[in-house]
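Note to self: user wants both folds in one dump. Writing first protein now.
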Amino acid sequence: MRPFTNASIGFRHWFVCLICALACTAFAQEDRGALITALEGKATLVKGIEKRPLAPFERLEAGDVVSLEQGKLTIVFFLTGRQETWQGTGKLEVGPGEGKGSGLPAPEAKTLAPFLVKQIARTPTLLAQGRAGVMRLRAIATPEAIAKVEETYKRLRMETPAEDLAPEMYRLSALFDMKAFEALDVAVKELEVSRPNHNEAKLLANLYRKALKNVQEAR
């Protein structure tokens, strides 16, 4: 058996450190993003001379500039868990953990619990952007795990304003993560029935219906 030398041990240590550094960098970059969770009126993503309209459940990255025109936009920052609601006409620069407005009143803001932010960040998006567009299937659905998700959802729903879909985003994402597809289908139907005229609710339900369809086709 070939003995380890100081040089080989040193190289292995350097290599492990390099991999860890790269992983941390990737994680940090991912956490710098944000998600639009609600939108009323007109919002436009401005990148240089390019402009395109935005919709709910699109990802934004640090450095993006959003132009609001008599609009109302709610955004959740993954790095800090900060939820901001901006309203009016002006511009919003997306930072790594919060927004910076220009010509806009100060936003309504609050900090969400880390477990809630984690699930919101896993919401499938309109555009398959990075990790957001790739659904993860890791956990195992047990009756106890599903019951815990439902219990947490009910608590969040009681504590959250009716127009805020953060509890529903948590519930759907958590159930999808653990492959609880039957429970997820029930949750999607409940969302549709409870909010028949809510645009974001309709869109969120459709996103998960598409995700379920993709899973079925993959099988």
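First done. Writing the second protein, which came from a different request thread.
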Amino acid sequence: MDIKLHKQATMAPKTHAEIQVASTSITDSELARQYGVAVATIRR
């Protein structure tokens, strides 16, 4: 499967979907640490 992301994409669509599902049960800082991104990225 060939995934085409724009130049400034920071994560794959699969990771983005996982974060959306998990955001109700885990804090933003825990998710950021788990996925190696900034808290601001999680909040977006």
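Dump finished. Worth passing along: Residues 32 and 40 are 9 Å apart (CA to CA).
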